[in-house]
Specification:
single chain, 220 residues, alpha+beta, Nucleotide Exchange Factor Grpe, Chain A, domain 2, 4 helices, 6 strands, adenyl-nucleotide exchange factor activity, chaperone, protein-folding chaperone binding, stress response
């Protein structure tokens, strides 16, 4: 073999193989795109970051909505409590007015009844005075006297039913609100001045109302 033929393989051995060059460039290219790949990852992470930023806003919006609803409910509750307080006050006023009306009408009815009873008793009392004089007068007919006494007893029971009372004034100090003095006599031994010593006519009252003043004689 000639020397040129021997050198050819060596030259060929020193020249890089095309496939190897291409593979090396491919490896280099494979290593180089790492930075663009990282950029696409950052781009994918950006929406997640924005979503994470929007999440507090959504929560704040939800809390604000709930706060507004709570404030609205509180306002309605306050208005309802105020309205209830006003209604309660009105109810108490109406109840008080009704109670006053009931008491007033009851007093008026009692007053009218007492006035009617007082007028009727005032017309009957003179008759009883006459019967008492007849009962105290001497009489030989015991049956007659007994009949008069029984009539007076029935009249007394009727007065009790009507709540008409005879005033006890004999031996009591003179009271111009209850009695009419028609005479004064010298005080006897043991009698105090101003004491009632004689009753000419009995006095009657209905509760606090005087039906007839007692007619009396008072010691000086």
């Amino acid at each position: 073999m000639s020397e040129e033929t021997k050198k050819a393989p060596e030259a060929e051995a020193g020249t890089p193989e095309p496939d190897k060059v291409q593979d090396g460039s491919a490896e280099t290219a494979a290593e180089q795109p790492a930075s663009p790949g990282a950029g696409s990852g950052e781009a994918a992470a950006a929406p997640e970051a924005e979503a994470a930023k929007d999440e507090p806003k959504k929560k704040d919006g939800w809390f604000n909505k709930k706060n507004r609803e709570a404030e609205a409910l509180k306002a309605k509750l306050d208005a309802a409590e105020k309205n209830a307080a006003q209604l309660k006050d009105q109810l108490l006023r109406v109840a008080a007015e009704y109670d006053n009306y009931r008491k007033r009408t009851s007093r008026e009815a009692d007053q009218k009844f007492n006035d009617g009873v007082s007028y009727a008793v005032g017309q009957i009392i003179p008759i009883l005075d006459t019967l008492e004089m007849a009962a105290n007068a001497p009489c030989a007919d015991e049956n007659y006297k007994k009949g008069v006494t029984m009539t007076l007893e029935k009249a007394g029971k009727a007065f009790q039913t009507l709540r008409v009372e005879e005033m006890e004034v004999l031996g009591k100090p003179f009271d111009p609100n209850l009695m009419n003095a028609v005479q004064q006599v010298p005080a006897q031994e043991g009698q105090e001045s101003g004491t009632v010593v004689t009753v000419y006519q009995k006095g009657y009252k209905l509760g606090d109302k005087i039906v007839r003043h007692a007619t009396v004689v008072v010691a000086e």
